[in-house]
Amino acid sequence: MKTLKRIGILTGGGDCPGLNAVIRAVAKATMNGGGEVVGIEDGYLGLIENRLRVLTNQDVSGILTAGGTILGSCNKANPAKYAMPDGDGKWVLRDVRDQVVRHFNAAGLDAMVVIGGDGTMTGAADLIARGLNIVGVPKTIDNDLWATEITFGHDTAVNTASDALDKVHTTASSHHRVMVVELMGRYAGWIALHAGLASGADVILIPEIPFDLDKVAAKCLYRRQVGKGFTIIAVGEGAVPAGGKQFVSHIDETSPDPIRLGGVGKFVSDELEKRTGLESRAIVLGHIQRGGTPTPHDRILATEFGYQAFKLLSAGQFGRMVVQQQGRIDSVPITEVAGKVRTVPIDDILIQVARAIGTSFGDVEP
Ligand code: F6P
User: HSE on the CB side for 216, CA within 13 Å?
Assistant: First the structure.
């Protein structure tokens, strides 16, 4: 074990509950070992713009239960493809990796911990190729990061999403309605699957299983026929009608990953009302899923991931990301993770469980 004198730390991508718990764990373990921690503001943007500050004990104390990130985050600043105005009202992507390496070296950093999702790990892989010592910690409410079976933040998001699904039950039941709740998750259906199962949603629509609206409508009508006048539907934002396309809410030209999903919930609700004659409403839960205090599960996982990152740094094992595999904490090369998405396998045990108890995925007759 060697003591690294100066460690940089940043949080990249969309914020999620548990980021502060990781910062706290890395910083406390490093400081207790005699090292210094430098906070990089707003993800890679802070390295591009040279916004760094030494973190004190006080900075990282009392933040375990706080959502968000004390460092700020940014889901647009990939150093290899950084969007800059070209002067003609358009955005062009520039490679600013040399600038990042310069600022990293000027700050006297021995190594850096990057806490983020796929975009952050892809950015890290590019910087590792330029010789920077980096260790990754996986975060995202979407739970879609390659090589790890869980990311912190997901449990809290699932709690929030199931709370919403539980709460719409009363209106659905009192007004005999179909209630569609659109959940986040991008191209993976983990949030919709887990929250849908936790709340007993009657229909769960996820990107991995294209849905047939006639089959979803048949499920709503079948429920009415057997005395259940309402239907609760959990739909992941990336869910697609069979033969159709994903619903895009807007394109962010300043982002290297410009597509923002959204709109499938309203589409499903409107179509079901037309096809069944049942009154339907759609709710978009949105960024509420990224907020709030992390659950104890996420606080523990984030703290353990932070400590493991510290251990990798101390052992000089750079270029690796902390993961959990089959319940055990381990690590894999960051290059193995970059650019990949971990979607729900269509034979996932929870899909089998849900089907067995009568939950529809919109692909078979009720
Ligand atoms: O990756 C986290 C996430 O919240 C996704 O679930 C969602 O699609 C996306 O980020 C939203 O991004 P933004 O905060 O840019 O709207």
Answer: 35
